[in-house]
Amino acid sequence: MSQDLLINTKSSAIRTEEMVLNMGPQHPSTHGVLRLELALEGEIITKVIPHIGYLHRCFEKHCEAMTYPQIVPYTDRMDYLASMGNEFGYVVAMEKLLKIEVPQRVEYIRVIMAELQRIASHLVALGTYGADIGAFTPFLYCFRDREKILHLFEITCGARLLYNYIWVGGLSHDLHPDFIRKAREFVKEFRPTIKELNDLLSYNKIFIDRTANVGILPLETAINYGVSGPNLRASGFKWDIRKNDPYSVYDKFDFDIPVGKGTHGTVGDSWDRYFVRVLEMEESLKIIEQALDQLPAEGDVQSAIPKRIKPNAGQVYGRVENPRGELGYFIISDGSTTPYRVKVRAPSFVTMQVLGELCKGYMVADVITILGSIDIVLGEIDR
Known about the structure:
This protein is of the alpha+beta class. Helix content is about 50%, strand content about 10%. The protein has a single domain, classed as Cytochrome-c3 Hydrogenase, chain B (Orthogonal Bundle), CATH 1.10.645. α5 runs antiparallel to α6. It is globular.
């Protein structure tokens, strides 16, 4: 064999080709209609390109043709796992624009509903996360407990998923006569089940091996990308709008802000993102208990609802701490009964930008682990 032929043989042996693999949009672990374009070197990921828009419904454009109250049920359909929080964010911005104050009873009921919604949303995130990785039983436990929260919503406003409950200036209904009793029962029953979830999933060795030291999000990267909510706190930064920029009556409650500590791996890994949500459910229970104790007995929940909403020309930004992070509404009024512009800062959309950074250098199987840990909902990404 000649020298030249030997050199050519050797060079061709070490030449590799990049492989492109499509994951989704029908993949069960993408948590919605999302297509990920994965660039691979063997089984190692070099690049991730998300392709979104499959669930686009023109929410922001529709708002320009609707009156302000008509927008509320459309907000439900963005993050459909946290509809109460979507409505809360919208009315916080609108009441700021209109400069109206709502009765204290309304504020406390809103907080109770928002925290129940946070627990229900986290239960979906944690249950499906376990199922993604191969643990199906915790999924059943989580949905069993979520069902109790949906029942509380149903007896209050008649709906289980899309509520149209929190209105500008008030609420669509006052609480059901049995609501307070049933809410207290739920808090009492649910607290021990968090320990069950930890025994089944959080401290399971296989689950820890799949999630610890996987998809590490350094604090600097999280801040640079504008990540918020549990994903930011899991990277070790104590930032929660309910504490740092309080709205409604959150400044009247005593609760902690859980952050990632790298208990089983590195601060900001997938296990930390998962466990911060577990701890947040405990804090939400504290807030609900305090809100139920402090809830004013008197007050008309519809007394401050304007008969006709026609704000002065101007603009406003209102934000709340939704289960997935900072949900903000930027509203521009031209002085008419319909908004000139409604722009939404959706936390899932912002978090999606960092997915490529999280997946780089990991294996294909880890994409499922990482994607589930950031807990995105495509309804609010695509809008």
